[in-house]
Amino acid sequence: MTAPGTDPTYRTEALIAEDIEAYLAGHEKKSLLRFITCGSVDDGKSTLIGRLLYDSKMIFEDQLAALEADSKRVGTQGQAIDFALLVDGLAAEREQGITIDVAYRFFTTERRKFIVADCPGHEQYTRNMVTGASTADLAVILIDARKGVLVQTRRHSYLCHLLGIRHIVLAVNKMDLIGYDQARYEAIVADYAAFAEGIGIETFTPIPISGFAGDNITAPSLNTPWYCGPALMPHLETVELDTTADRARPFRLPVQWVNRPNLDLRGFSGLIASGVVRPGDPVRVLPSGRTSTVTRLLTMDGDLDAATAGQSVTVCLADEIDCSRGDVLAAAGDPPQAADQFEATLIWMDDEALIPGRGYWLKLGAQTVTATIQPPKHQINVNTMEKLAAKTLELNAIGVAQFATDRPLVFEPYADNRALGGFILIDKLTNRTVAAGLIHFSLRRAQNIHRQATDIGREAHARLKNQTPKVLWFTGLSGAGKSTIANEVEKLLHLMNRHTFLLDGDNVRHGLNKDLGFTEADRIENIRRVGEVAKLMADAGLIVLTAFISPFRAEREMVRRMLPEGEFVEIFVDTPLAEAEARDVKGLYAKARRGELKNFTGIDSPYEPPEAPEIRVNTVEMTPRQAAEHIVRTILPLP
Amino acid sequence: MLTHLQRLEAESIHILREVVAEAERPVMLYSIGKDSAVMLHLAKKAFYPAPPPFPLLHVDTTWKFRDMYALREKAAQGAGMELLVWQNPEARERGINPFDHGPLHTDMWKTQGLKQALDHHGFDAAFGGARRDEEKSRAKERIFSFRTATHAWDPKNQRPELWNLYNARKRKGESIRVFPISNWTELDIWQYIRLNNIEIVPLYFAATRPTFVHDGGLFMADDPDRLTRVLGRTPDIVERSIRFRTLGCFPLTGAVESEAATLEEVIQETLLTTTSERQGRVIDKDAGDASMEKKKQEGYF
């Protein structure tokens, strides 16, 4: 064990006391390593972190006193100090004796500053572990020496590797409990090496430790004379940082904010994702592809000669070119690609499962677009790495799927660049972060299918018909009166010499959409197809009327975004459920109540009413004719 | 190679810019303490040469140190930012004070006052200078911490936060508290103040000041007349060389006896000290282990 006087923390303390200026000068130069610890409660993860904090003198005396008292009261180590109590934060967790969220801890040694993401290990907390791993340079995977490589070890290793962590430490813990048995340790390491190679982990650093007894934590332990590698702390102090590796890659700056303090200055602000930039460098703005030259790297402390990956900067360019939030500034000679169809690994993080076909917000760097996800190609069993067939992804599931975006996305594969390859998906209704994604590659389809320009455009079509195209989107419960009112509206418009077409829900299901049922996914696809058809008809210059229940806000919003601003007119045919059910024109409510009709809107499938429809008609107060006249007056105001 | 302070600075600036790009009406909660001073300095850097495009909000309890009020005005002016001050009218009317009302003082002036101010101005994102190393429940809070329309925080229902991608989406009435210096430690703050010559309240440095002992703690008699009125007696005032490790309401913030009069001496003392920073504040202890977590669920910063 470490002899007093050689432990670096003691020397630190002496330096602080004797020459604070020298200490601060040294401290200012320290780098920062972010790492994650993975393991289950029983592996002694919290104990190890508590030990790191303790050994690096990050525990104050009042905390230590409280810790000693707590250890006796609720600790699991008898009369000894239970280091785990230091790090298990939230009240709910202390009661249950487990760590349920990601907690961040901080400590400093002579050489580096550390941020530890302390993550729970159980399978139901996969999302928490992925969160902690996303910002880590290194992972410490804990194994209980008595138990060896377990299912959870494989899961943790897979997740860390998936999230692109380049440095993996295999900490074989509780060596004190197996009498520091070298053979047992080596068997565990060999077992792990076989597994690691299989999933693509090229190297890892095994260390035999005891978090409880302090072996091989800050210094080599006398209890393991057969071990020649580094102790844990010195290893953490010397591994290469990701920002150092990122620096060697081509320059990329996702533009976060355009700074326009006055007419003479336009600066593009953001965090450099990779590479180095200097005044005079040629750069390209993506996705537009325009080029310019860097003139200044502006900061409050004066202009910089160079800035590197990991720095937040403001860049000024020589030319007045179009560049806004979401664009990416890149090395002119080596720019990233833009595409709108991709394959990615998705990690689902929400209680509500993935709905293929639904539009989600996708945020990547400073870009936010709408993405629709295809049904997964497969799901991955995180314990066995087997590929399984899947129709959706539920909470904590990991799978591979293709997706399309409504606008081109500037990206790089996640394996090359975390900042331009990692994204989150946000549910448009609940605003929750529902998934994390890692881009593998763009699909060639997007690159090779270009739009064919035609000479007679949509304006020309509309001009000939002497009208402004519109899509009048009727939404409401079954039996609300959508088709009836839409029919009345079309009759009125026809009398006024307008060119119209009515797409009716039931009619479309006899033809174009006859392959679709009434599950959530099918209903979404139903609306997507109708939206595409309505868009084509509007391009042809028509006023399109659609009568579909279209129960989900997200899909109505998707159609709205397909059309030019102002052309989509959402008409809410507002009929209370009781009223629609009382009318029950087609006898469907009765069937649904009897259980003969599944997924019926209003009965066992939800209807999400529009929040701000362009037009709302109340069918209890208005006749269909009155409603139709109201709609026509609203969309075609008298000159 | 970037130093840890350069990386922390870059991260904080990124967060500040992200909020301004995505929120409709952001505000910076400014408590006048050293953490607020660093956060404000980072905001100036993030938007330089423009002033930070949001106002400063001080939720005032009327019981802050006089030196704090003085710096408040100066700092806002120096940054070219609008300063908004909110004092809970109900607390003012009922004469809520730290001596007679105990925990109610913090609840009324700070927790309720903050909610009132955010609702009154319609702010949808509020920057706060909390750090994860301060207290155990803060170690788990997100950088973008989502609050319901009633300002409640649900620790079990936090949005996952991956890479440096922050989800700022919310419905009308809901808001986010954003902590740009989450990953800074107390030492980082001091070091950054030193490297950037950031002005902080002089009370952080030792000087001879009028003090009195109350409930076993050492306090500064910042406004003796007011103290006498509230206590109903004149406290025994003794001149001592003291400084503060943290600044809040003067009757709630314990002083430490100290000779550390320069920044370097303060850092030295901080590093060699044997009690943790929040020890001087009464708030963490009033309901046992989970006190801060409970306050946060109720809407405290």
Brief description of this entry?
Chain A is of the alpha/beta class.
Structural commentary:
The complex is a heterodimer of chains A (639) and B (301). Chain A is of the alpha/beta class and 639 residues long. In chain A, 31% of the residues lie in helices and 26% in strands. Chain A is built from 21 helices and 28 strands. A 7-stranded antiparallel beta sheet of chain A has the order 7-15-11-12-14-9-8, with no helix packed on it. A 6-stranded mixed beta sheet of chain A has the order 2-3-1-4-5-6, with helices on both faces. In chain A, strand 4, helix 8 and strand 5 form a beta-alpha-beta unit. With 301 residues, chain B is an alpha/beta fold. Chain B contains 10 helices and 11 strands. Chain B has a 6-stranded mixed beta sheet, sandwiched between helices. A 4-stranded antiparallel beta sheet of chain B has the order 8-7-9-10, with no helix packed on it. Chain B starts with a helix and ends with a helix. In chain B, 53% of the residues are buried. About 5% of the residues of chain B have low confidence.
Q: Which residue ranges of chain A are poorly predicted, with pLDDT under 50 across at least 5 consecutive positions?
A: 1-10
Trace the largest sheet of chain B across and list its strands: 3-2-1-4-6-5
Oligomer status = heterodimer
Share in β-strands of chain B: 15-25%
- The H-and-E topology of chain B, N to C, reads as HEHEHEHHHEEEHEEHEEHEH
What proportion of the residues of chain A is helical, as a percent range? 25-40%
Strand order of the largest sheet of chain A: 7-15-11-12-14-9-8
Biggest sheet of chain B, in brief? 6 strands, mixed
**Spatial gap, N to C terminus of chain B:** 35 Å
Low-confidence stretches of chain B: 277-290
Count of alpha and pi helical runs of chain A: 21
Dominant shape of chain A: globular
